[in-house]
Amino acid sequence: MNIIKQLKAQRRKQRFVMSGTFFLLTGAIIAVFFLKDEFEQLNLDRLSTNWGLALLLLTGVLFLFQTCFFIYNIILYFRYKLIKSVSDDLLPVCTVIVPAYNEGRLVFDTLVSLAKSNYPEAKLEIMAIDDGSKDDTWQWMQRAKAELGDRISICQQPENRGKRHALYRGFQSGRGDVFVTVDSDSVVMNDTLRNLVSPFVTNKNCGAVAGNVRVLNNKKAIIPKMLNVSFAMSFEFMRSAESALGSVMCTPGALAAYRRDAVFNCLEEWIDQSFMGQPSNIGEDRAMTNMILKQGHHVVFQKNAVVFTNVPEKLNGLSKMFIRWGRSNIRENIMMSKFIFAKFREGSRIGARLLFINQLIRIVMAYPLILLMLLFVVTHPLLFLSSTLVGILVFSSFSVLFYSKKHNVKGAFWAYSYSILYTFCLFWITPYAIATMGRSGWLTRELVQEKSIT
Predict the structure, then answer these.
(1) CB neighbours of 343 closer than 8 A, spacing ≥ 6?
(2) Membrane-crossing residues (predicted)?
(3) C-alpha–C-alpha distance, residues 214 and 311, integer Å
């Protein structure tokens, strides 16, 4: 009965959030119509001053760049080519590394899904590494070992040293020509692994492959439903565009593959990486991607290599995850700036540089934009609220249309709710990440519930 009550409560929350979203957007459209005279006067006032004119010019330039960049991504998206799975005899020997910390039952589900993969057993090595967990993760690994036998191997780190060190141990021990990393709270499809590694066979210059990450826990909680749409845009649209350039900017920790030679060419630099004098213990996926791109390799995306992963269900956990991603993004953009404008690989490098410039603009403009936003809020609160919501309606509609086309219409409308949530509750993430980019720490590693092996 408690489960039924919880499900009903969740549905009521979802209906409330969705109806509230449409109420806000509809109200914003009406408000903009009735406030059109105030908007016109505001623009006239800005045009009458030098700073206002400069502001409008800067806004226009940024808008033009983002519009052109968006159109460029659409063109790249349609140029994206999916690599179909190669035959069994062509598949490389593959080592799958699953680092785990305080994951409990989830790591068992991950290992079972990997063992069920449609991949030749003789060519598949699955390694699970317990990174000094404080819960029953090791017991779940032992249970997986007992049920799966020689299909997997398990080991324990003597103490918790972080995900990077757990992966390092796997890289050093694995025998595969290709390394695959999978988060320990994720589940793969039956054909995921063979689809993921096939580009290494068809493209000898391929150094890394990004998998297609979907949300596993999106049936109940509201935030995972929002992130499910956001992930579709981030992976199926954005990474498809980046893949057309051979320049995917980040191979996700949830599912990624790396050519063995490319890994060992940068392995010691990667494990010893530091930032502002401190060891880097976050952003290991983005760092590895950067170092492989720097070698001149292509990094591509495989839409048909799907992994389902758990995401935070509460705002506190979501904000911590975004802070970690933000800090990593800033650090690795600094690192990328050291080679992106050099001749780091043969062929065209313009596309990769445009991707970098786009990310750089977002970082550089973080503080100016937030200051302008706060000024707008203080001086014209109604104009700010109504124009921002209408902007969300316009710009998020592409996400809604994209998700509707690729998946389903019902789930697509969470894109509007997510944009409202991020704009009004998480706008501070990038400025805060910049201010604290020297800090390390996983932030969400201790956010686990008690799990039982029974």
Answers:
(1) 349
(2) 16-35, 55-78, 354-376, 382-403, 415-435
(3) 10
